[in-house]
Write a structure and sequence with these properties.
The complex is a heterodimer of chains A (about 425) and B (about 425).
Chain A (H helix, E strand, L loop, with lengths): L4 E4 L5 E6 L5 E8 L13 H8 L11 H6 L3 E6 L4 E8 L3 H13 L5 H20 L6 H9 L14 H5 L3 H11 L5 E7 L3 H11 L23 E7 L5 E7 L8 H11 L6 H9 L3 E7 L8 E8 L5 H17 L4 H18 L3 H14 L8 H6 L3 H11 L5 E8 L4
Parallel strand pairs in A: 2-6, 7-11
Antiparallel strand pairs in A: 1-2, 3-5, 3-6, 4-5, 8-10, 8-11, 9-10
Helix pairs in contact in A: 9-12, 9-15, 10-11, 11-15
Chain B lengths: L23 E4 L5 E6 L5 E8 L11 H7 L10 H10 L3 E6 L4 E8 L3 H13 L5 H18 L3 H14 L11 H5 L3 H13 L3 E7 L5 H9 L21 E4 L7 E10 L7 H12 L5 H9 L3 E8 L6 E10 L3 H17 L4 H18 L3 H13 L5 H12 L2 H11 L6 E5 L1
Parallel strand pairs in B: 2-6, 7-11
Antiparallel strand pairs in B: 1-2, 3-5, 3-6, 4-5, 8-10, 8-11, 9-10
The chains are: A alpha+beta (about 425), B alpha+beta (about 425).
Chain lengths: ~425, ~425
């Protein structure tokens, strides 16, 4: 049970406080309700580039990192297709330093041309390092654009192409900031060796005076129901063929979300999972095979992805996978199999909740979804899933008209 | 109106009185040492069986790592699948790890499942059978994984720089090849298992919210195992003569993997702790000289880091980055320029003060939670360092001055001593 207090400042900033006096540290987590899905299709990668720019100095503070390091703190940030999250960990004694830094950059960035120019280069190198220079690094670029036709999940968080990042202009950066980086679009979580009254006073002092901004109304195009299977074929200089399939699933708040999540654990994700046992160990067709989803806010994708053993044909591998899915659809999982993935989930949550930082970011995330208290209800929602529900979800999910397939072929040896 | 230009007052982290929470020390009936940290609010446990069974003990490449990996591949009474199923059923994680001196099997679980898991672990440590078909599958899949990894410039660079530093014959420098996987045999694994696990030597590192009867249970399942500590074989270092290497790995690649490294003594050398401070200034954190110049000023890379390798017998000082193909040369030039600056100019008080605070704050954060605490103790114990070493670390962070750091830079930052590798 994760306890917390919650209040809202007059400018709309939601503040959550989670006290844990067993640690000497404090965590300050600021979540902004903006991700890659909120980008213009011709300016993709902006939310993530922006995350980098948040470290390039704010209105009154030329350097973000230096004072924080001086206060014994560390920080980082991440951007997903749904949200952007910034977090600081520092000795609790120096909590106010984090308020000072985070509030100033919520007030306004310095918008330096130089910082933009440098971070454009840095992000381009990040793009190359993770998506161009790595074998199979472009799988998701292809898969996203195959599975989504109109929804902005059709591009990756890093962006659709390098050019979008290279062409970003300072005015666009300013517009993006004042649209999204405002108190009413943010959630502040303060956790660790802190107290509510202290956090309230600091929040009023540092964040209170920031103008509320306008609440961003998200109006994203809804992905139409897929009506026929889609395929794409790629050749690349990689050593092994790869098969990647996705199916459209429910959104994060959908009634079948927890059943879907457990279903992916039955199929992949552990040594005893079905696909690993059958296709890697028994039939020896795949070097590895995984089943997962991203837990995205809007309707996401259940993914099965694996590299083929050399010499195994794509057709054979695909057929064997199809047989596994057919078997899974025709026969509901046993109670024991369901119990296994529930136990795994319980254990994963317990280990995750060990770290204050992880508790803080989870609170922010559930608050973004609708209510931080849902964090404590999660386990119960998993426990309530039945084998019949899993069977129903698998039949709904694994229909050929709902399926996207990427055949990723290794170039024939020269 | 608040003055937003003015930083709120801070407590300098250097003034913190940091204490490393002591472990509880016990011995099982067979003399096995048990180190325990009881902390944390969640009902979870981490137990590590750390054997003297690392790469140093093998006489054929990959035997130690493969034996360790295939510990879950089946026992006299359970197949690999049955083991996997039992472990997964209670949501536990049983991981293996093979290092240079040690090899580990690590259990993470909810406390309530410990009674199911301890006998299984005992079985894995005493009755593994290494089935031929599991070995064949492992060989096939590992060779294919290797073929994927060898396309990655950073993977290739990581292997080669270690080989240059320590020699390809040394456990710290040797690496795998498809042939070395082909040459593995079940008999060789069984022999290694028999000597280094069944009749070997292990220590136990335990952390989490420890149940009152855990020690008794550990003794019940592991206190009767035969213990015969193997002596660590001696390996000579054969560092490469040539210093500069450029390797063509991926003609279509858009980045080069850069490694610049020099040999460095291990943790027992008096320069080691001062070097941790100098390294932090140089390339050890986001605000370091290398990051500020090469990422934040020039944008050549997504990240550049320097570090001292965590090795027990001999260490090395390493600089590691991936940079755009066209700026690899410029990046290397800047790395040496930053070394040069540390040799020729004193580090300013402000910068050194910041680094001290950053390191102390980091240490405070690192001591948070049972798993972090046991990891720190384990590092001291494995390196044969006394508990006072922790306080020496803090004293060094607090008291080392700019002159001492400059002397240190002059001693170790001679470009002639560095290996330089670019894999493109």
């Amino acid at each position: 049970m994760i306890t917390f207090d919650r209040f809202t400042l007059s400018n709309g900033l939601r503040v959550l406080v989670h006290t844990d006096v067993s640690t000497p540290m404090a965590v300050v987590n600021v979540l902004y309700d903006v991700g890659a899905r909120d980008e213009d299709p011709d300016q993709t990668g902006f939310a993530h580039l922006f995350e980098h720019l948040m470290f390039g100095g704010s209105l009154h503070i030329p350097d973000y990192d230096e004072p924080l390091q001086l206060a014994g703190g560390e920080n980082n940030a991440y951007t997903t297709n749904d949200l952007t999250n910034y977090y600081i960990q520092l000795p609790a004694d120096n909590l106010e330093t984090a308020f000072w830094l985070e509030s100033d950059r919520m007030l306004s960035l310095a918008f330096s041309q130089k910082s933009l120019a440098v971070q454009q280069k840095v992000v381009c190198e990040e793009f190359k390092e993770h998506y161009l220079n790595k074998p199979y690094g472009d799988v998701w670029s292809h898969m996203r654009s195959l599975a989504y036709q109109v929804h902005p999940y059709r591009w990756m968080t890093i962006g659709r192409e390098l050019a979008h990042i290279e062409q970003a202009r300072l005015q666009q950066v300013k517009d993006f900031f004042f649209k999204h980086y405002t108190p009413c679009n943010a959630i502040l979580v303060v956790a660790g060796n802190v107290h509510v009254a202290q956090v309230r006073a600091l929040a009023e002092k540092w964040f209170g005076p920031i103008p509320a901004g306008t609440r961003y109304q998200r109006k994203l195009p809804v992905e139409p129901t897929q009506a026929a299977p889609r395929y794409k074929m790629i050749q690349a200089p990689v050593p092994l063929d790869l098969l990647c399939k996705t199916w459209h699933m429910t959104d994060r708040l959908g009634a079948t979300y927890h059943a879907t999540d457990l279903l992916t654990d039955m199929l992949g994700g552990s040594a005893s999972s079905r696909l690993h046992q059958q296709l890697v160990k028994e039939q020896k067709l795949f070097v590895h095979i995984d089943c997962y989803h991203f837990g995205s806010s809007d309707p996401g994708l259940v993914t099965i992805e694996g590299k083929l053993v050399e010499g195994v044909s794509m057709e054979k591998a695909e057929q064997a996978l199809q047989e596994q899915l057919n078997a899974f659809k025709s026969q509901p999982p046993s109670e024991q199999e369901l119990e296994k993935v529930k136990n795994k989930t319980e254990s994963a949550i317990a280990f995750e909740d060990m770290s204050v930082m992880s508790r803080a970011s989870s609170l922010a995330y559930y608050e973004l979804l609708g209510d931080a208290a849902w964090m404590n209800e999660e386990l119960g929602k998993y426990a309530a899933v039945t084998t019949a529900q899993v069977a129903a979800v698998s039949n709904e999910l694994f229909r050929s008209e709902n399926e996207n397939t990427l055949y990723y072929y290794a170039n024939p040896p020269a | 109106m608040i003055d937003r230009k003015k930083m709120p007052p801070i407590v300098d982290a250097v003034h913190y009185q940091l204490e490393l929470k002591p472990y509880a020390h016990h011995q099982l009936d067979n003399g096995v040492e048990v180190y325990m940290i009881d902390a944390g609010a969640e009902e979870v446990l981490q137990i590590e069986w750390l054997y003297k069974a690392g790469n140093c003990y093998e006489t054929q490449n990959l035997i130690a790592a493969t034996t360790n990996y295939l510990l879950r591949a089946g026992t006299t009474t359970h197949t690999a699948y049955e083991l996997d199923e039992k472990i997964d059923y209670v949501g536990a994680y049983v991981n293996r790890g093979c290092y240079n001196e040690q090899a580990a099997i690590t259990l993470h679980c909810l406390n309530k499942h410990i009674d199911v898991l301890l006998p299984l672990i005992r079985e894995v440590l005493t009755e593994s059978v290494f089935p031929e078909h599991e070995l064949l599958l492992y060989q096939q899949n590992m060779k294919q994984r290797l073929s994927v990894n060898l396309r990655k410039s950073d993977y290739v660079a990581g292997r080669l720089i270690d080989a240059y530093l320590f020699g390809e014959e040394h456990p710290y420098g040797k690496y795998s090849s498809p042939t070395s996987f082909d040459l593995l045999t079940r008999d060789a694994l069984l022999a290694f298992y028999d000597r280094y696990y069944k009749r070997g030597h292990f220590q136990l590192f335990v952390a989490g919210k420890i149940p009152a009867d855990l020690l008794e249970k550990l003794n019940r399942y592991f206190g009767d195992l035969p213990i015969d500590s193997p002596s660590l074989p001696t390996h000579l270092l054969y560092p490469a003569e040539q210093r500069k290497f450029t390797i063509q790995n991926d003609p279509a690649g858009v980045q080069g993997a850069i490694r610049i490294a020099r040999p460095f003594p291990n943790r027992h050398h008096p320069d080691f702790l001062p070097a941790l401070v100098l390294n932090t200034v140089f390339g050890g954190f986001f605000g370091s000289r290398l990051m500020s110049n090469i990422r934040e000023e020039k944008g050549y890379t997504y990240g550049i880091h320097s570090y001292l390798l965590n090795l027990q017998q001999a260490s090395a000082w390493m600089i590691s980055t991936e940079a755009g193909k066209e700026v690899c040369e410029a990046t290397i030039k800047e790395v040496y320029a930053e070394m040069n600056r540390l040799c020729n100019e004193l580090i300013a008080d402000d910068e050194l003060n910041l680094v001290r605070n950053y390191m102390m704050g980091g240490l405070l954060g690192d001591l948070d939670g049972p798993f972090q605490l046991i990891a720190r103790w384990k590092n001291l114990i494995l390196n044969g360092l006394p508990p006072a070493h922790f306080h020496r670390t803090i004293d060094t962070i607090r008291s080392i001055d700019a002159q001492q750091l400059q002397v240190l830079a002059q001693r170790y930052f001679d470009p002639a001593d560095f290996y330089e590798l670019v894999v493109v």
